[in-house]
Amino acid sequence: ASRGLGDVYKRQSLGRLAVIDQDGTPEIFPINYAVDGESIVFRSAAGSKLDALATNSHVCFEADGWTEETGWSVIVDGRGEVVTDKVELKLLDKLPLLPWVPTVKPNYVRVTPTKDISGRTFTFGEEPAE
What is the largest distance, in Å, between two alpha-carbon atoms of the chain? Predict the structure, then answer.
């Protein structure tokens, strides 16, 4: 696991979720998220993301960021599941997960890593001569 990134992705709120749709085609969705322990949580309305999870729970999540000098990227290979436990839902309601657009998003989805969390950092600079 690339925990050397200092869990920097936990300080972000925008990432991307990659799923495989019912036709076997990969799709990527921007999501706002929160970190809950070692898992990623986001809210969703009914539709493409939830339809894809119903047939294939294997997902990838990516968050990245940059400054003028450096950049980083974190990838979580995991399993996505709609949360249905009422006690857990009450706890998730306390996370800072508000919809960005005026849409009702009653479903919470938890992405639990199934492999090590991986990532890398970059230091920007001039392109070297050949």
Answer: 60
